[in-house]
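Posting this for the archive.
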Amino acid sequence: MSKINPVEISNLIKAQIESFEKDLKTESVGTVVSVGDGIALVHGLDNAMSGELLAFDNDIYGMALNLEKDHVGVIILDESTAVKEGDTVKTTGRILEVPVGKDLIGRVVNPLGQAIDGLGSIPIKKTRPLEKKAPGVMTRKSVEEPLQTGIKVLDALVPIGRGQRELIIGDRKTGKTSIAVDTIINQKGKDVICIYVAIGQKESTVAGIQETLKRHGAMDYSIIVSAGASEPSPLLYLAPYAGVTMGEEFMYDGKHVLVVYDDLTKHAIAYRELSLLLRRPPGREAFPGDVFYLHSRLLERAAKLNDDLGGGSITALPIIETQAGDIAAYIPTNVISITDGQIFLQSNLFYSGVRPAINAGNSVSRVGGSAQIKAIKKVSGTLRLDLASYRELEAFTQFGSDLDATTKRKLARGERTVEILKQGLHDVLDVEKQVVSIYALTRGFLDAIDVEKIRRFETHLHATFDQDKGGQKCLKTIREEKVLPDQAAMNEVMEKAVKSFV
């Protein structure tokens, strides 16, 4: 019989104690009580945070949106058919985050930052929380640097500055998306990163926009965030926040960003659907009480940062669709009150051939002339008044045919104003060419040209300035010094163009 060696036993016990690892883990686990329409009610998650990422079985994730006494309301960030009653749900301790960085540029992604363009996955190097407090008053700088849209009527009458929030509003099929896409195309070579957020758009529409941007070389500095019409409403709700979060990464890096939200009407409708499913009390038009905060916390994240923070900016172009031009409806009035002005598109102008169909009287930029270069400010000073008085006279002349010479002259100038402000689709113009066109109008060089020949004359005028030595000098002065060149030099090239026009 072998003897038990107490030294060996004590050494063995010591070795066991040293190798013992305390791997006790505590998890907050709940159970799905009910599920449907992208919403799950979960019981037992007493420690869940608002906006926290929650893990379901089968690698499906959700976000805590409602924290109630006996359950947590969760929006499911995937197909909700895979989630069943009785499934376990775990807290992750993390707020929902999205990937950010240069790797996203040129790609089409969903609101979770996953590639949906078939070009392979995107490496995740950095993430940012989806919800973030907007920059405070002291961290901001006043908006004074122009963001050129390349659209004459906008850059002359409704100028947009970097860091501004300018609403594009109008009925469906009036050219709202076209204005936003043209603005993105015009940022080529201007060191601006563009993010187009498609909320509830048809997949074919988003593919068409991607193709347009690619054709004009704009995808080299753009990101498309798409939550299609077939996606569950939680993804539509998250899409604009994902877009602005991706933009903030560049803004805090000292860069300039343009974010287009197309459109916030569908965003509000998706949020209303979620809120009603979560049994939140409905208010006006069945929207929940916090629908104003839904958009204000999004649009306030657009800002021009001060120089201490790098001087970066996010310019926001939210789009709102109206019904029969009703801008006094609930969502339009909410967003109008949050933004720094609006571009109002009218269907009767669109159908009468005035494109872009911008109503200059109802459109306004609250940043105003501080976001314009001196040259365009000088030539377009009386343009808004001329346009308004023409519209008034046009209505008046329908009743009377006997007109005096002054009225006839005003009507003729008004017709030429409307004609010169027309612009083709994706036909963006550099600011120096815009100044030339508007100078020709306001200084009377178009008065001798027939109205139907105005567009052709404009092309000829730009070609004359490009080819003439004096004209090239004038364009260079506007482009580099931002001021109007010597008027005698401008007039000389203008007269050459008028004489040589056939």
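The mean pLDDT is 92. Residues 233-251 form the longest helix (19 residues).
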